[in-house]
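Appendix B. Chain record.
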Amino acid sequence: MPDEERNLEHKRAEYAYSCIDEIAGMGDDKQKKYRTAVLSCSAFIQKAGLMQAMAFYLSKKQNKLAEHILRWITFQRHGGNAVELFHQLLGANDEMLAAMTSDAQSLVKWLKRFAEGRLKKDEDVDSEGAAEESTEKESRAEE
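Structure tokens predicted for this chain:
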């Protein structure tokens, strides 16, 4: 892999990690929703196309996922909300859109990797709740 390509991949990984770090600081419900969305995102982009996928995530209030992807592919790493970034995507020609789609897919791979390791999933929350509940029952039984 050439150095330039390796550096881009490294930057993608760093950016994806910072995105997941942001989500990891949010509540369990937001983490679960983001994790679910990011795990299916690659297939959705492949099936529906980048613009349609981003429009869907914006309409379903998955703004953070859309914002993270759009911010990366429009080179706006530190500004702009998801809707403003989406407007930049609308102005892209076919060649540019194909390149953005490929770049988005590469980013989503990193987002998925980090989300699987760092974000809550339904079973995590359920098992924590069950553990707390069983500890409470044991405490009551000892009294």
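Further analysis of this model is presented in Appendix C.
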